[in-house]
Design brief:
heterodimer; A: 424 residues; mainly alpha; MetI-like fold; 3 domains; two-stranded antiparallel ribbon; 20 helices; 2 strands; 2% strand; B: 362 residues; alpha/beta; D-Maltodextrin-Binding Protein, domain 2; 2 domains; 10-stranded mixed beta sheet; 17% strand
Chain lengths: 424, 362
């Protein structure tokens, strides 16, 4: 013992290399082997998941289209001050014509028009219509162009048109993110959208609020069911389990449409209420195409995601704990509240995270039963992906949604602790 | 084993191009509409050319999907059925091929050139019109009392016609109807709608019935709502109402007043190989000739886009009723019509849609 400590220099392994080094090598070998084993999955996840998401997120700031389509114009615009209120000089108009002739040849000018139309209404037709006439001009011989272009469309004689092009000529833009929070990029910096166009923040708030409501109602409805499942004799529990799983296997669309049949004013519930005389025929309840309908339908659809993790956690709670508590004088309630419930919290946590994260990105159910007050932010994202083709804005909205979910996850970890989540 | 595999790979490589030419993917809307195309276009074309046609019901997401395919450099569709507004967008984005009507489309039987035969309906360089459809109102004959609605403004009259209405959850058409019923002359509608005051005016008019509206987003919603008695009247595509009235015999009637004409037709995606492009053009040449367009009207109540096809419209293939009176273009139905203003909505759609959605959420 004293010998070993008195030795100077590092501890050596049997083959004479320092122990630390040889240990590291052995570990590295192990790690490489482990990496090789998961490599196929890793590559698959990278290619099919991480890369597409990253490239979609990148769209929320990417804006090279203006600079690529109008390179000379953008350069000239640097010398022009939008605040001066003066129209740009002839040099800029000449540069613009030169750029446009190239762009029209490659059929890119209308794409630029669509892009700029997101910021300033009217740009789309301005580029499309002017393109037809600019095509006939020769940048080398037909100048000067300033008056000619203003003749083609008087909007080219409008300072705002050029200011918009200048404002959105940067390669990496914050414009989409500003749009996503009801603001806009202007020559004078970020400004709020006019009040009658503000909708997105409201939708974010509503999405969060409704997802929380849905999660809460799933907990309330799911907890007793999970408790029954875990505590009934196996045979009865199995039958109950099938009842839980059956809707889980049914198509989402079918279940949503079924709620429509149930809840609408000429639907099953209203008919029954009118028939037994609880509700007057001309005062039928409005239970669909609003928040109520969305919460009911989504709670039903997401309920299995709450019950299953709760059930698997509750199954591991020994009934002897409760008996022990009672034998020491606890009432039924105290035994449940002080012993059983704390043990079942990890299941609630797991179920809540599942339900909440699924709910926050839900699209089809709010679309069908949401009416005007029950739609989510995802419905707006879908609109920008498939109808307006404003993928930049859709990406910005998606990024914010992802950020919100991660933030909430982090809060959850801080408050409850993520170790405290169990799926079984 | 290895040689076997190589042999297999070689044969596949040899067979594949030949097989590709015999197959084409045509994208459309599905349902009764795809069926009408199958009967009127696909089956005769397959019989004539031996090409197998694969149907893909993706038209509703066609614009986004085409863009994604184009970015990935792998366009798998040959011919795509889209509404004219989408065709304009695709053309602007460079995702659809430009078509020269006179050389690439069939002339009318009497020799009239295709561009003249289609006339104003060639709203974009990339678009080959197929049908004229309209968005119009249907009402429950048993729920509207003794006097049936006759004008578009009855939709806004909740005193005379109490009950819910179904309107589409987007500004297009609704804003025009609102202005029309708020005293704006038909010729001024788009000038008014281009101003913020005009937009507010339209929303204010819609606001008078906001509490009585169920907003739909799929074409099948209104027919269902009418059949269930959830609404007394609602807007939808005229072909859907035809099915409710004539095929399902529901107590529903059409209110053709102020119907908005819109066009649906084909585009060929940009970036196809020469071989596939030739195939697609060959199909288009066949499927949009005068007789074929008239044939489609046997299966669905949408008007053919060619002037020369109108006289050839006959009876419904299964119901045996005359189709001409059910066409939106029939003179009796077309006394007061709008044509979807493509130029206006291409510019204003995003702007007004944001306002409209904000107004809805209020």
């Amino acid at each position: 013992m004293t010998d070993a400590t008195s030795q100077s220099g590092p501890v050596l392994a049997a083959d004479g290399t320092p122990l630390k080094k040889s240990l590291a090598r052995a570990l590295r070998l192990q790690k490489t082997r482990a990496l090789m084993l998961i490599a196929p999955l890793l590559v698959f996840v990278l290619i099919s998941f991480v890369f597409p998401i990253a490239s979609m997120l990148f769209r929320s700031v990417e804006n090279s289209i203006v600079m690529e389509t109008l390179p000379l114009t953008v350069e000239e615009l640097q010398n022009w001050d939008a605040d001066s209120g003066q129209l740009p000089e002839e040099a800029l108009y000449a540069a613009f014509i030169a750029d446009m002739v190239v762009a029209i040849d490659a059929k890119k000018h209308t794409r630029l028009g669509t892009r700029l139309n997101y910021e300033e209404t009217g740009m789309s037709s301005l580029f499309r219509k002017s393109g037809r006439k600019i095509k006939k001009l020769d940048p080398a011989t037909d100048g000067p162009f300033k008056d000619k272009l203003i003749d083609i469309d008087k909007k080219w004689g409008d300072v705002t048109t050029w200011a918009v092009i200048k404002t959105h000529s940067v390669k990496i833009t914050n414009g989409y993110f500003l749009n996503a929070i009801d603001m806009q990029r202007t020559p004078d910096g970020a400004q709020a959208q006019p009040e009658d166009k503000r909708i997105l923040i409201k939708l974010f708030q509503r999405t969060l609020f409704m997802s929380l409501m849905i999660t809460a109602s799933c907990i309330m409805l799911g907890y007793p069911v999970a408790w029954l499942l875990a505590n009934l004799p196996a045979r009865t529990a199995n039958i109950l389990m099938i009842l839980v799983l059956l809707p889980f296997w049914t198509s989402l669309l079918v279940r949503t449409s079924a709620w429509k049949v149930m809840l609408q004013q000429q639907g099953v519930i209203n008919e029954v209420l009118v028939w037994i005389g609880l509700v007057a025929d001309d005062a039928r309840l409005v239970m669909i195409n609003n928040q109520f309908g969305t919460i009911v339908a989504m709670t039903h659809i997401l309920l299995p995601f709450m019950i299953l993790p709760m059930y698997s956690v509750m199954q591991t709670i020994q009934p002897t704990y409760l008996r022990a508590a009672k034998s020491m004088g606890a009432t039924n309630w105290t035994a449940f509240w002080r012993v059983y419930f704390p043990l079942s919290v990890p299941g609630i946590g797991a179920g809540s995270i599942l339900v909440f994260i699924l709910a926050i990105g839900y699209y089809i159910t709010p679309e069908i039963v949401g009416g005007t007050k029950g739609v989510f932010i995802s419905n707006r994202i879908a609109y920008h992906i498939s109808s307006s083709l404003n993928w930049g804005l859709a990406a910005a909205l998606g990024t914010i949604l992802l950020g919100v979910v991660l933030l909430l996850y982090w809060c959850y970890d801080k408050i409850v602790g993520i170790d405290n989540v169990k799926l079984g | 084993m290895k040689t076997k595999l190589t042999a297999l790979a070689v044969t596949t490589a040899l067979v594949a191009p030949a097989a590709m030419a015999q197959e084409m993917t045509i994208v459309s809307w599905g349902g009764a509409y795809s069926k009408s195309q199958l009967k009127a276009y696909h089956e005769p074309y397959s019989a004539k050319s031996g090409v197998t046609i694969i149907n893909d019901d993706s038209s509703a997401e066609a614009v986004a999907k085409l863009r994604a395919m184009n970015e990935a450099g792998n366009v798998t569709w040959d011919v795509v059925d889209v509404v004219a507004a989408d065709a304009i967008r695709l053309c602007d984005e460079g995702l659809a091929m430009e078509i020269d009507a006179d050389t690439q489309l069939a002339a009318a039987p009497d020799g009239t050139s295709a561009s003249e035969d289609f006339g104003d309906l060639l709203v974009s360089d990339c678009f080959i019109p197929q049908i004229v459809y309209s968005t119009t109102f249907g009402y429950r004959t048993d729920l509207v009392g003794d006097t049936a609605p006759t004008t578009i403004c009855d939709v806004f009259d909740t005193d005379a016609y109490p009950g819910k209405r179904a309107l589409e959850k987007r500004p297009i058409n609704n804003m025009e109807w609102a202005l029309l019923c708020d005293g704006v002359a038909k010729s001024d509608v788009y000038d008014v709608l281009a101003t913020p005051e005009g937009q507010d005016k339209a929303l204010a008019k819609l606001g008078t019935i906001k509490d009585d509206v169920i907003w739909w987003s799929a074409g099948a919603d209104t027919p269902q709502l009418l059949a269930d008695g959830e609404v007394v009247m609602g807007s939808t595509y005229n072909g859907r109402l035809f099915a409710v009235i004539e095929e399902q015999k529901q107590p529903v009637a059409m209110l053709w007043d102020a119907q908005v004409f819109d066009l649906d037709g084909w585009i060929i995606p940009a970036g196809l190989s020469d071989e596939r492009k030739a195939q697609a053009l060959d199909y288009i040449m066949f499927a949009t000739d005068t007789q074929r367009l008239a044939d489609q009207a046997k299966y669905i109540s949408y008007g053919p886009a060619r002037a020369s096809s109108a006289p050839l419209v006959g009876k419904h293939a299964e119901l045996g009723i005359d189709m001409a009176p059910h066409m939106p273009t029939d003179p009796n139905n077309a006394q007061n019509t709008f044509l979807y203003n493509y130029e206006f909505w291409a510019d204003y759609r995003d702007d007004i849609d944001a306002k409209f959605q904000a107004w809805l959420a209020k």
